[in-house]
Amino acid sequence: MIDAEQLSLLPNEPGVYLMKNAQGKVIYVGKAIDIQKRVRSHCRRKDGRYASPFVEDAEMVDVIITDDEVEALLLEYNLIKKYHPPCNVKLKDDKRYPYIKLTDEKYPRAYLTRTVEVDGAAYFGPYPRAGQARQTLNALHEIFPIRSCKHDSDKLLSVRPCLDYEMGRCCAPCGEIVSAEEYQQICLGVTGFLRGHTDLVIQKLTQRMQDCADDLLFEKAGFYRDILEAAEQFARRQKMMSLSVENQDFLGYARVHDIACVAVIRRRGGRVVGSSKHFLDDVKQADTPEILDAFLNQFYARNTDIPKEIYVSNALGIDRVRILEKWLARVAEKLVKILVPQRGAKYDMLQLSEKNARDTAQQQYRRLRGVRQSVPANVIALQESLRLELLPLRIEGYDISNTQGAEAVGAMVVFQNGKAHKSSYRRFKIKNVDQVDDYSMMREMLQRRFQHREENENEKRRFAEPPDLLLIDGGKGHLHAAMEALDEIDVHHFPICSLAKREEEIFLPGVEAPIRLDRRNAGLKLLQQVRDEAHRFGITYHRGLFGKRVKRSTLREIPGVGPARERALLKRFGSLEKIRQTEIEELISLPGVTIDLAQRILEAVRNPSETPAEENEI
User: Fold this and answer.
1) In angstroms, what is the C-alpha Rg of the chain?
2) Burial class (CB in 10 A: 0-12, 13-18, 19+), 273
3) Between 20 and 30 A from 299 (CA), which of 14, 141, 229, 530?
4) d(CA 439, CA 484)
């Protein structure tokens, strides 16, 4: 039975879910716009029974996230054909999805079909709905003037051009207006469009839509708008139903703190047939290329189904790729290529595998740490913007606050999972720097934070959680000072950056030019929150200390006022301002305060210019 913890860890995203029994056999495959809500609806009980009876036999749920429900529908179709789950009764009919067929003739034509045959023709699809297939076919005839008639190519020359030619929807090979070579070039454009190379086609459609709108032909412009939407949807669907028949694996990698996961999406014969997720141990000190290298070695060493192409999310280095390709070719007894796509349908597919890996790693992290909520989008955006190995789940922000070097303090704030974690805030009173030197103060604070943690058991408890990212308030100089401080105590394994307030520039170690993110970037906004909170926390502490110092120095300089009498005065009146406004009669009402002493107190607080200079530095 699927328990409540499993349900809480399911993603609230579109995709496909596979329910498995205790033996790991798939008993049901379903699709959903929101996977968690849909699975919960299966598990809902009414009158002592489950909404879906097959839930009683389900022990676990595996998920594959997609970009939208259309992709989920196509993937569900593939997985049902593969696993034949016993509980998918309604989907086990012989319904066939529509394809667009481009015939294998001298003058090819395009039309819809639900039957795929080995006849040399090119088939594009399947489409989940016939309406979408017809829209795409209409778009083809609007853009590419290929024939739609059913005449054989060999008999075309005996046929007169029809109305389609007059309407500009056919180039009329029947009238020998175009040659066979020119017609084949037009067909190449059709093939490119249907295979997802839609940029040029979409550009033409956009221009036609704009021309119609300029000519006030709004109904025609709306027609082209609908065609554009169908073309864009078609391009997205190619991720689930590739027109390539090559066998391919897409390896998406993600890491959440100390949990690393690789999601493998398998495409066989042009169809996505499933995915698998794999966790890796002992990755704390390893970088991404090293982890992927180890995974490739171990995963494919015991895998008999090695595809011709393996797509990875990070470049492993030319030398490492060549060695792995030679090894894979020897194991698989065929040529195997390791590729890093930069754009197009394969890049989109790889992004989807990374999304699945990230979700799985998050689920595992939440399961092991007992965390209910998922990782916020701003934390993920920050990782992607700064290209961090770890998700910055715990960010520590540092700032220095002082007035001309007086009462210098350091502040450390902590953001956990994108939110302020105030119980983890710490403040440091700077002890070893007696001049205006922010760099030295930052160095002292960081060394006390990390060095004392290793030496003192109490500090270990106070700083139990290690940071995923250190944020220093300031520019390149502050970053260098912080790095020098960490080098002196041999601390090198925490990512670090600084944020300069004036231009909101981010400085990273080893990167000469600062990073400037869009002001709307969620990751930048998170850094700004941490920086501003560290400044607020530090300056609040500094003002409290400096205020006490001013009070103490002003009253203590008065002859006859010692620590006890100073405490009594502040307890009675609350502040120097209140003492300044009081009358002599109220002062002499205090025990031990004579008229002479009361006059000296009032003169000192009402004429601060006669006090030492340091008493004015507020």
Assistant:
1) 35
2) middle
3) 14
4) 10
| Alpha helices (runs of H) in 456-521, residue ranges in sequence order | 457-462, 476-488
3-state secondary structure of 61: strand
Q: 69, 70, 78: which is closest to 18 by C-alpha?
A: 78
Q: How many CB atoms lie within 10 A of CB 179?
A: 10
pLDDT band at 178 (very low <50, low <70, confident <90, very high): confident
H or E segment and range at residue 275: strand 271-280
Residue 203: other Cβ atoms inside 10 A: 10
d(C-alpha 424, C-alpha 537), whole Å? 12
475-496 in b/e form (b: 16+ CB < 10 A) is beebbbbbbebbeebebeeebb
Residue 238 CA to residue 124 CA, distance in Å, equals 10
Name 123's bridge partners. Answer: 101
Long-range contacts of 292-297 (CB under 8 A, 24+ apart): 292/251, 292/253, 292/262, 292/316, 293/320, 293/324, 295/251, 295/262, 296/251, 296/324, 296/328, 296/338, 297/324, 297/327
The helix or strand, by DSSP H or E, that contains position 40, with its residue range, turns out to be helix 35-43
Residue 462's pLDDT is what?
55
Residue range 6-15: mean pLDDT, rounded = 85
* Integer Cα distance of 591 and 585 in angstroms: 12
> Which band of pLDDT confidence, cut at 50, 70 and 90, is reported for residue 548?
low
- Cα(496)–Cα(436) distance, integer angstroms: 24
Encoded tokens for 34: 């929101």
Q: Look-up: residue for tokens 């990755």? A: 283
**String of DSSP letters for 276-335:** EEEEESS-TT--HHHHHHHHHHHHHHT-S---SEEEESS---HHHHHHHHHHHHHHHTS-
Which tokens is 85 given? Answer: 């789950």
Torsion of CA 224, 227, 228, 230, to 10 degrees: 160
pLDDT digits (tens, 9 = 90+) for 553-576: 567 677 877 777 777 877 787 777
By residue count, the chain amounts to: 618
Structure tokens at 113: 């079909």
Residue located via tokens 């209409």: 138
Cis peptide before 85 (omega within 30 of 0): no
d(CA 573, CA 587): 10
Helix, strand or coil, per DSSP, at residue 345: helix
Strand ranges for 376-468 from DSSP E: 394-403, 406-416, 419-420, 426-429
Tokens of 347: 């890049």
Token reading at 216? 């006030």
